[in-house]
Amino acid sequence: MHEKVLKAVPFVNWLNGMKKTKLNLNEVFVQSVDMFGPKVGFIKFKTVVTDVDGDSRPVVVFMRGGSVAILVVLVCKGKEYGVLVRQDSVPTTQPLFPAIPAGMLDGNGNFGGVAAKELEEETGIKIHASELVDLIELAYPDGKYEGMYVSVGGTDEFIRLYYVRKEVSEEVLKDLEGKETGLAAENEKIVLKVMPLENLWSYTSDSKTLSALCLYQNLKKMAKII
Amino acid sequence: MHEKVLKAVPFVNWLNGMKKTKLNLNEVFVQSVDMFGPKVGFIKFKTVVTDVDGDSRPVVVFMRGGSVAILVVLVCKGKEYGVLVRQDSVPTTQPLFPAIPAGMLDGNGNFGGVAAKELEEETGIKIHASELVDLIELAYPDGKYEGMYVSVGGTDEFIRLYYVRKEVSEEVLKDLEGKETGLAAENEKIVLKVMPLENLWSYTSDSKTLSALCLYQNLKKMAKII
């Protein structure tokens, strides 16, 4: 287990990242590791860091690496629609909680490819990775941030946010609404929701949906995206 | 420890929340508990749920309860400024990562009071809880959501987002910029950043900052806030 943690991509990235800070790492105490089959899924650990003033403090980290999420804008007869996937969230006890399509990264750096694959799995919408607009790179150029950070005090999780725009027919739009999708093998049950883009923010309090909308609206205002 | 977990507010809320869903809880295996002094801080557990179709799946939960965050808009000579607190984030290895002021809830439901206290601790800005505009209640009326959910697949964490607007003099604005704050007792070191509100989204990829801005901008568009 020890070996697997030391080789897990998020942990390796974290150790390298810590070396670039002015903080000193005194110890790392791994409290639990959740395996996803043969792969390391989540690592939970405690650490103690010392800053340049010599002051120490404990930090607890829930390590789960990166993910991707896609703001899909469908255009039908000149009107814009957003696409949400609804699924039960056990941690928040929210039944069929709506959020933009998303999925975990498995360690490799091919963000766009993973995003296109997740989008097809969760919604059936097929796109090529090259059609995706990288909102993170546009908003934070030169790799300033890897993604949107969900909760910087407790987890390494970052979400690479994408945007894709597609003209669709009324039939396609109708077929998507209420459609049931998800990976049967993982007992992942999803119901699609299609709604006017302008109402998306008032329909869900999901961080990736609101953050993607914020970047989309502000980048649009600056004419950096269509 | 067992007793303390069963009495912890986030865990009690979660058990009650699960009873309202159609999911069946088969087991809860607590993997680790982080104490903050005498109080339960974080609980990490695994559970297996069965849905109405009889299909089961494992879920891992990093339980940390709720927090509050405040979008502070300072108005000086007709121009709007946003306030960010910058502090080292060990989980993401981001030095002096900027985000709107925030703090954890300690279990009680007095969100506004905690928000006002955290704002003063982190920035020195004194406000009364009654001055806070509850963006969550405005965007999701009738208690639809407790807050913005940071990562619904892995944690119960929700952030109650607030907004406060204050006219200030040039002196106050100048004093805030670069000021060092934070609770010495917790070795919490914070540097303030004051910047034009319109640029806030491009300065940080923090979920609570982007989500609060999204709600603020859209509620403003609908004339629900000033």
TrEMBL record, chains A, B:
<feature type="domain" description="Nudix hydrolase">
    <location>
        <begin position="63"/>
        <end position="217"/>
    </location>
</feature>
<dbReference type="InterPro" id="IPR000086">
    <property type="entry name" value="NUDIX_hydrolase_dom"/>
</dbReference>
<dbReference type="GO" id="GO:0080042">
    <property type="term" value="F:ADP-glucose pyrophosphohydrolase activity"/>
</dbReference>
<dbReference type="GO" id="GO:0019693">
    <property type="term" value="P:ribose phosphate metabolic process"/>
</dbReference>
<dbReference type="InterPro" id="IPR015797">
    <property type="entry name" value="NUDIX_hydrolase-like_dom_sf"/>
</dbReference>
<dbReference type="GO" id="GO:0080041">
    <property type="term" value="F:ADP-ribose pyrophosphohydrolase activity"/>
</dbReference>
<protein>
    <recommendedName>
        <fullName>Nudix hydrolase domain-containing protein</fullName>
    </recommendedName>
</protein>
<dbReference type="Pfam" id="PF00293">
    <property type="entry name" value="NUDIX"/>
</dbReference>
<keyword id="KW-0378">Hydrolase</keyword>
<dbReference type="GO" id="GO:0006753">
    <property type="term" value="P:nucleoside phosphate metabolic process"/>
</dbReference>
